[in-house]
From TrEMBL:
The keyword Signal applies. Residues 181-225 are annotated as: Disordered. Transmembrane segments: none annotated. Residues 1-21 form the signal peptide. Pfam families: LTXXQ. Keywords: Signal. Residues 181-213 have a biased composition (Basic and acidic residues). This is Spy/CpxP family protein refolding chaperone. It comes from Advenella mandrilli. InterPro entries: LTXXQ.
Length: 225
């Protein structure tokens, strides 16, 4: 019985740690960002192409997230990933193409790094639980080291994307700005269309309820007669 409980505790704590790790990773999730006036803080914090996700409109972001996973071809730190269309519009020179390719390769190689970084923390937690000798300070220090290593990698990746941005001409930077403006406008238009459809459904639902309420007394009168 005790062995069964211990096994259950180990599995539960390991699962909890895995969830924490996944929530903290900088995997290349590539959901569409919202416009600059909406959730700007989140966009700036998560807009490096790693773990980017926005609350709200979950279905819509789920759809566009899948689309962007296949189309993401460049990342603008603070604003998130963009499609191949932007790369084509930028008309990169050979030096810029080399910077872009290096950043993409580094990002691709980094996809499995968070899992490896947190593996030591998983193992340490499991050891402590199985032995029954818990050391919270050691656990916190291990987690701190994992986060620090992850942030160091993240900073290195961001530096590559910033180097590419710094190589852009003023005209290219304007092209990037217009790309995000257009995308934000499309997002806003979809948001307004969705709100309009919801309002129409609400009005139809209320109309049906109203008609039902008016019909009930008539049916009752007919039944009595």
């Amino acid at each position: 019985m005790a062995k069964s409980i211990s096994s259950f505790v180990v599995k539960s704590l390991t699962a909890a740690t895995a969830a924490l790790a996944i929530g903290s990773t900088f995997s290349v999730a590539v959901a569409q960002p919202q416009d600059a006036g909406s959730r700007q803080g989140m966009s700036q914090k998560m807009g490096d192409g790693y773990g980017q996700y926005h609350k709200g409109e979950r279905g819509q972001f789920k759809h566009h997230g899948k689309q962007m996973r296949t189309q993401a071809a460049i990342v603008i730190p603070g604003f998130g990933p963009a499609s191949q269309q932007l790369v084509d519009d930028l008309k990169l020179n050979d030096e810029q193409k080399a910077k872009l390719q290096a950043a993409l390769e580094n990002q691709k190689q980094a996809r499995g790094e968070p899992r490896e970084m947190f593996k030591k923390t998983f193992d340490l937690r499991k050891q402590q639980v199985e032995s029954g000798k818990l050391d919270p300070k050691a656990m916190l220090e291990a987690q701190k080291q994992s986060r620090a290593a992850m942030q160091e990698k993240r900073d290195a990746h961001q530096a590559q994307w910033l180097a590419l941005w710094d190589s852009f001409t003023p005209e290219q930077q304007t092209t990037v700005g217009k790309y995000y403006q257009d995308r934000a406008q499309k997002m806003q238009e979809r948001k307004e269309q969705r709100a309009k459809r919801m309002e129409e459904r609400r009005e139809k639902r209320e109309q049906r309820m109203d008609n039902k309420g008016k019909q009930a007394p008539v049916e009752q009168a007919e039944a009595k007669s």
